[in-house]
Write a structure and sequence with these properties.
31 strands; mainly beta; five-stranded mixed beta sheet; 54% strand; Methylamine Dehydrogenase, Chain H; four-stranded antiparallel beta sheet
């Protein structure tokens, strides 16, 4: 049974971000890294065209429960805060992602704005700022269309490769460093994407994305059908907003129908459906790193639920105090963080 060890709440200094910029429904404007023994964590958050870095203390405490068995957070401190001033975007940042490299203490911080401009910086855990911009790149049709939600993911098996999705343009751009490799054209508005690195058959070249009410699978080695090798329909008329892949290769998708559907990529069929696991739309999903039979579900009603997707049972949940502007989990451990438009940051440790 996966249980929370601590739940902390910190408040972003008003002098740093007095008024966070508005965010889309499936906002991903937070990236998280646990430091050493997890006595503190580093959180990157994006507001408007800027990125901020905070170091937050993770204090041990008895996790209490309130009404509806919701966990009660303990107040904690923001130890350090600073502006990452080497990420100059021209419009509102829509997504940020932190990818840990093999170099000790170094990670890649990627950010994409509403026009699809991508900036990747190398960040150092021991400094208070990014130590230099690695590269920046724009889509080939950057002057066409309007600004909209944009998503970003790195290829875990090849961190030089990144994919960005633009909702308005219905496109996904693939880059290797600052080299544009190809553009994938989606049928619907993309809302989430992830590389299928856990998929044994060429996972490093395969991409899963939610678009409209369907889950589409793309193989970068294939030219036929624009690279799309599989389309799986969800509930007709219900938008999908989130996709995630577990270490065992299962793919989960969720959205307006409040259902987490888990697929077996070997047969492309649903192995489990967790109906009505959220009271409102699902806007984020991530599998547990400790036990892939558990999944974290982010709802539009500020609630985060952890539960067994096979047994369809909730293990625990907690709730933010306003709309989520971003939510993320560490790549190798079950430490999660969410940022609310009230300025509060909630950090949960279940590792």
């Amino acid at each position: 049974m996966l249980e929370p060890k601590r739940l902390n709440k910190a408040v972003v200094p008003q002098s740093l971000i007095p008024h966070p910029s508005p965010a889309s429904l499936q906002s991903t404007r937070l990236a998280l890294h646990a430091n050493g023994d997890a006595s503190s964590c580093t959180v990157y958050i994006a507001s408007a065209s800027r990125i901020y870095k905070l170091r937050i203390a993770l204090e041990d405490s008895v996790v209490g429960q309130g009404k509806q068995n919701l966990l009660i957070p303990e107040r904690t401190q923001v130890l350090e805060s600073s502006l990452v001033d080497r990420c100059p975007h021209r419009s509102e940042i829509q997504s940020i992602v932190l990818a840990e490299t093999k170099s000790m203490g170094r990670s890649l911080l990627g950010s994409v704005d509403s026009y699809g401009d991508l900036i990747v910086s190398r960040v150092d855990d021991f400094n208070t700022d990014a130590d230099g911009s690695t590269y920046s790149v724009s889509p080939r049709d950057c002057g066409v269309g309007e600004g909209s939600w944009a998503g970003l993911c790195f290829n875990p098996g090849q961190l030089s490769m990144a994919a960005t999705a633009r909702s308005f343009c219905k496109s996904i751009d693939i880059y290797d460093h600052d080299i544009h490799l190809r553009t994938l054209r989606t049928l619907g508005f993309p809302t989430s994407l992830i590389f299928m690195d856990s998929f044994s058959e060429g996972g490093n070249s395969m991409l899963a994305t939610t678009e409209g009410s369907q889950l589409s699978i793309w193989d970068l080695r294939v030219k036929e059908n624009g690279g799309c090798v599989q389309r799986i329909m969800g509930s007709v008329g219900d938008m999908l907003y989130a996709v995630s892949i577990s270490s065992s290769g299962n793919i989960a998708a969720g959205g307006e129908d409040r259902t987490v559907t888990v697929y077996d990529p070997r047969r492309w069929c649903a192995t489990s459906r967790w109906l009505n696991c959220s009271k409102y739309e699902i806007t984020g999903l991530t599998f547990s790193s400790v036990d892939p039979s558990y999944i974290y579900v982010q709802g539009v009603d500020y609630e985060i639920i952890c539960g067994q997707w096979r047994e369809r049972e909730k293990a625990f949940s907690f709730r933010g105090d306003s709309n989520w502007l971003g939510f993320s989990k560490c790549s190798d451990r079950d430490i999660l963080a969410g940022w609310c438009d009230s300025g509060s940051i909630f950090v949960a440790d279940a590792s």
